[in-house]
What we know:
27% helix, alpha+beta, 8 strands, two-stranded antiparallel ribbon
Amino acid sequence: MVVDKASYTPLYKQLYSIICHQILDGTYSLGDRLPTQKEIARQFDVSLIVVKQAWNDLVNSGIIVSQRGTGSVVNALPEGVSYGHTFRGITSDLSFSQIRIENQILMVAPRSAKEALLDGLNLPAKNKYLFISRVRYAKGKPFNHEKIYINLSFFPGLQLVPEDLAQQSLYQLLENRYQITIGSAVEKIDAVMPSPELCERLQISADMPLLSVARQTFLRDENEPFEYCRYSVLSDYFGEIHYQ
């Protein structure tokens, strides 16, 4: 994960979220010593002032303890996300809350980068993509509509049918078939009013705002996304967000 210097989110808040994410994904465990602030500054190409601000928030939140001469140690797991929204994907996120996810697969088909423009996604034209459209249900109620474009250059020979995705995580399926490791994701979130199609798909009224999220997901040690996704989700899924 990287700090986005073009983002409206302050750098120290981004760094705070990255460290929280690394604790949650097991990069650092309880009791582990973190790199020094100077090392973090070099790793993420930010100033020491930015790191000190992030460290102050981590200490104040009780996530790390920092002592002169001994460094900083992970003291507690981050809290604050109602369902635990992470880069791992919705199926994995909600499984931690013991919430069963069901999928209604609307379409699985090859698509081009040009067609993705209609979904508000600007994809590299050089690649071929597998398109997946689905509605996701939690506790029997629809809460999320996804339009996914899988970059087939990472998954040669990939073919899917709706039955493949009805009861299992897309990410887990790809990990099992191709022995890959998903590393990180970047999301841009906007508040929108639902279209008539989304009102029908998510069984909501036209005056209920949604979050529209454009997501790029990366394999570990890769700079090009393997997944591009536009999803519309009820805001309850995000809850109070520290974005871990």
